[in-house]
Structure formats: C-alpha cells, structure tokens
Specification:
heterodimer, A: mainly beta, Umud Fragment, subunit A, two-stranded antiparallel sheet, 39% strand, disordered N terminus, B: alpha+beta, Alpha-Beta Plaits, DNA polymerase, domain 1, Dna Ligase, domain 1, 3 domains, five-stranded mixed beta sheet, five-stranded antiparallel beta sheet
C-alpha cells in the first residue's frame, strides 16, 4: 500500500537504511560551541545510494572477484539504472544465474572477466546477447 | 500570448500495469524462472493467483487449487511460489515511485497498476508510454504495459489490447488506432472485459441484447442509468470517450495521511473491520512519529465496492482527537468509533483511516490535565521498535496484535527469499 504525497509515493517500507555514523563525540556538561555548526550526521544512504528506486543489495558467493576487492560473503550495491560500460563490475545473467563479472567491451567483442586467474574469461559476441542485471557501484567488504 | 502547443493538448490518461505482477517480481530476482511455467499461490498456498503465460498455456486456470496441481507439477515442469508480500510490496513501491517521475498526476490504483494524467501530441504520448515501459524493465526489472486514452475505462481497454496484441509492443494509445480497428476489437470482446462490469450485470446486459463492448458503447446512456445505475452509465459514457471517472490524485495532500486498502475478497464481519482499523491506526501512529507529526483529527471509513450497485454502504466517522497526538492507543480508540456503523454481513471492499490537521509534535506543551498518559510512557516508540526488530504483526494493540483469523496467519512453504527487505535474504550472485 502506498500513500501518495503530491505525485510521489512515500514510504517504500524498505528504504535501505544503514547505520548513522557520528562524526562528533558527544560531550556532556555545558553546551558545546560546535553545536551551532552541526546540521545532521553523515548518512550512509546518501553517500552510497544515488537512486533508491533502482538500487538493490546482493550478496556475493565465491572467490572469482578477489582481485577486485570483492570477497565471498561481501555485499554489493547494484544500480540497475546505470548503463553498463567497459570496465564496470556488472551482475550478468549466465545460465539463469546472477553472476558478478568485470565487463570488457572491445572492438573484437564483449568479454566477461573474472578477477581471479583460476577462472577463465567468457566471450560473448555482442552486448545485445547478454542480459546485464545491473551495475555494481560499491562493495561492502567484510574486514 | 500564444501558448506552447503542449498546453493546448487535451489531457489523457495512461493506465500502467505490471504483467503477471507476482510472477514478474519473482523472475526479477531469479532469472532461472524465465520462460518456465510459474504460478504464485494465494494465502496459505491455497490456489494459483498469478500465472505466467507458460502456466496459462498449460491450461491452468486462475483460482485452481494447488493440491490438485501439485501431483502433476513435476511432469509439467511447473514451479509454484508462495506469496512473498514483502517482495511484491517493495517492487510495487519502486514501480510507483518510478511512475511518479513521469507525471505529477498519479493515482495508485492497486498493487500493480496506476493511472497517470498525461498531456502531449499523439507521438509524444506514445513515446512517453515506451519510455515508461523501458524504464520499468531496466530500473526495477519488471515488464509493464501502457494504455493511453481520453478516459480511464478506455485506457484500461487499450492496456489490455497492448498486452494481447504483440504488434503494439506493450504500448497502445486508443486514439492512435483507426476507428474501424477499435470497433472490430470492441465487437470481438464480451462486455465482461470492460472495467467495472461484473458477471452478474453481464447477464442482465445480455438479456437486453448487449453482448459485446461495442453493443455497450452504442447503448443509450439514459436507458442504462434507468435499468442499472449511474455507475453503469458512466461506463457507457467513458467507452464513448467522455471522461466521467475522475483521477483521484488529490486523495492525499501534505497535511493528511491515508491508510487504506481494497480487499481482494470483501470482508463481512465487524470483527475483521475492527482488526483492519487497528492495524491502520497503528501504522498511522508509526508514520506520524517518524515524521515528528501529530494529528488533530482522525477519520475512519469503510465502503462496499463502487461497482456493486445493489449494496451501497460507505460509513465514515470523523473524530476530533482530545489533543494533537501520534499516540497509538488514542488513534486506535478513535478509529474504533466507526464500529457501531459497521453492519455484520455487509460486503465491505475497502476500509481505512485518515489522519488530518497534522502539525509538528512537541512545539506546544499541553497543560498537565491534558497530557497524554501513553505518550508519557513512550508506548508508540516502543511498538515501533519492536515492529522494526521482529517484523510487522509481532506486536500490536488490541485486535491489531492478534495474528489470528484467515488473513493474518499464513502458510508460505514455498516462499522465495524476501530479497529487498531482509539483510539475511539478499539475492545471491555467483562469483565463479
């Protein structure tokens, strides 16, 4: 159920709410002179998500993207609205499965690369023969 | 001063809906379901409510019980999913947000369809339809069809046409189709295909010699009003191209919040209405608190279907609250003021509450005797906190807390992950 405010539907009921990070230690006692300069904490949503409507979070299984800093169990922030370009980390549909690869678009064709020498490249004749599910913009790496 | 050409265009209405919505939402996150017969089951895994085209091709009817299909599912390669309301709710909200970008005039009609007010030359409108279709597929991942016409009824019909005739590529503007083709379509389709014409009425129309949509379009509106109702007359006029069913975009302004839903099956017991009102009152409380607002007035309402001319009942009660408040206890009590007006046995198709006269909370401290005892004890924030942690329906006041009854406890054995609302159920992507 949506509630319309003017033209927009608010409360998707599912905003990807992340933690707020406080930049300022909280002082007890008399009011801090810094108070006047405080206009809200930094918001991870604002930083990580440009278009909430088309942004999804997925979880990685496997080690084929290790050299791109993407490990087994990491979460990726994926924006479906972005145009897949050469060099992007993309989520592609391969054999009915969502698969994360580095997209290479060259004069000779399209290649889906792993970032781990253990895994071979996958060559595709043209971008149109490939279903790109979305473009990864951030990796939430577990340290 | 001459106005730009676009201002001189008559406004039209675009009807957008997601094809096989539940099945499409499932496929958006599980591409292996693509091209396979897929059904989504009703509450408690009862029967098929959504069928992919492949499932329809197997001859599976809507409402077919799962226990009958299950034994043959393997042989057919049929995949069944339990309803995943968390996922469908999220995908629906995303689609509606997206549609809001294309028109300031949006009416969310149901979970998977909306009307948009649009203006422009015929070419602009067709282009807009195609843009919307492409954006829904790309940004959200679901297929939609778009019907554009001068009236809502024709926009719905145009959409249906766009769905069934591949030549349209999913976008049909009624007036861009030659009149003889429009008439041929209307002559082919039974009146039951028209938005708002029920089976029961169909029989009576047939008895008057009205069988096809074209027959209905050519009927005398006055005679139809005499024999049926003003509702049916509007349908006739809309088929003729005269807008009669207005856009309801003004349903919610910035100074009010509405929580309301149409029920897929009407509810007939006061007990159920009570539960619905409790749930919405508490949702309103949560929303108000989140936005630091308090309401001064609560309106509770229920209604029979607007297409049900035999039974019309729209009880509504407006309750001035004792003080500006977001308190769930007070709001729930106020919503229950509607209950004396609810008649057991009436088929209510809709119920809801609206809070109005909203103001920022806490800028005026009430005098001691008017202080609200519940607010003092922070019941609202506590409920919200528990809901956030343990899910909607984990706690509630009065009847909203009882997850009993047919609608609220569900068997969902074949539910896919709640991909977009739960951290531990995210879609998995293979790095291999």
């Amino acid at each position: 159920m949506g509630v319309i405010v003017g033209p927009r539907v608010i409360d998707a009921g599912l905003s990807l709410q992340l933690a707020w990070v406080s930049p300022v230690p909280v002082a007890a006692g008399y009011p801090s002179p810094a108070q006047d300069y405080f206009d809200g904490r930094i918001d991870l949503n604002e930083h990580l998500i440009k278009d909430i409507t088309s942004t999804f979070v997925v979880r990685v299984t496997g080690d084929s993207m290790e050299r791109a800093g993407i490990s087994d169990g990491d979460e990726l922030i994926v924006n479906r609205a972005l145009e897949p370009k050469d060099g992007c980390v993309v989520i592609a549909v391969l054999d009915g499965e969502l698969t994360v690869k580095r997209l290479r678009i060259t004069a000779t064709g399209v290649v889906l690369q792993a970032e781990n020498p253990k895994y071979p490249d996958i060559k595709v004749p043209a971008l149109s023969e490939l279903t790109i599910w979305g473009v990864a913009t951030r990796c939430l790496h577990h340290v | 001063m001459t106005r730009p050409a676009i201002m001189r265009q008559m406004p039209e209405i675009a009807h957008v809906d997601v094809n096989c919505f539940y099945a499409s939402a499932e496929r958006a996150f599980d591409p292996s379901l693509e091209g396979k017969p897929l059904i989504v089951l009703s509450n408690n895994d009862g029967c098929a409510v959504t069928r992919s085209p492949e499932a329809k091709a197997l001859g599976i009817g809507v409402g077919e019980p799962w226990f009958k299909l299950a034994p043959r599912a393997k042989e057919w390669g049929l995949i069944a999913k339990s309803s995943n309301y968390e996922l469908y709710g999220d995908i629906s909200a995303r689609v509606m947000e997206l549609l809001g970008r294309y028109s300031a005039w949006l009416e969310v009609y149901s979970i998977d369809e909306a009307f948009l007010g649009v203006k422009g030359t015929p070419d602009h409108l067709l282009e807009l339809g195609r843009t919307i279709k492409a954006a829904a597929a790309r940004n959200v991942g679901v297929p939609v069809c778009v019907g554009i016409a001068r009236t809502k009824t024709l926009a719905k019909l145009a959409n249906q046409w766009a769905k069934h005739n591949p030549a349209f590529n999913g976008v049909c503007r009624w007036d861009s189709v030659p009149p003889e083709q429009q008439e041929a379509l209307m002559a082919r389709l039974s009146v039951i295909e028209v938005w708002g014409v029920a089976t029961r009425i169909t029989k009576r129309l047939n008895a008057m010699g009205i069988h096809s949509i074209l027959d209905l379009k050519r009927a005398d509106p006055v005679r139809i009003r005499e024999r049926f109702s003003v509702v049916m007359m509007r349908t006739v006029l809309e088929l003729q191209g005269t807008p009669c069913i207005p856009m309801e975009e003004a349903r919610v302004g910035r100074d009010q919040l509405i929580f309301s839903r149409s029920f897929s099956t009407p509810i007939t017991a006061a007990r159920d209405v009570r539960q619905v009102l409790s749930v919405y009152a508490q949702m309103a409380s949560g929303r108000l608190a989140k936005h630091n607002l308090q309401a001064k007035v609560l309106t509770a309402f229920a209604g029979t279907s607007s297409f049900n001319a035999q039974e019309t009942s729209f009880p509504s009660v407006c309750v001035p609250l004792p003080m500006p408040t977001a308190d769930p206890v007070i709001l729930t009590k106020a919503a229950h003021a509607l209950l004396p007006a609810i008649v057991d046995g009436t088929r209510y198709a809709r119920a809801g509450i609206m809070v109005t006269d909203l103001r920022p909370s806490g800028n005026q401290k009430p005098l001691e005797p008017f202080e609200n005892p519940h607010e003092e004890r922070h019941i609202g924030p506590l409920l919200e906190d528990i809901t956030r942690r343990y899910g909607r329906g984990s706690i509630g006041l009065g009847h909203a807390g009882i997850r009993g009854g047919p609608d609220w406890t569900m068997k969902r054995d074949m539910r896919s992950p709640r991909y977009t609302t739960h951290w531990d159920e995210l879609p998995l992507v293979k790095a291999a």
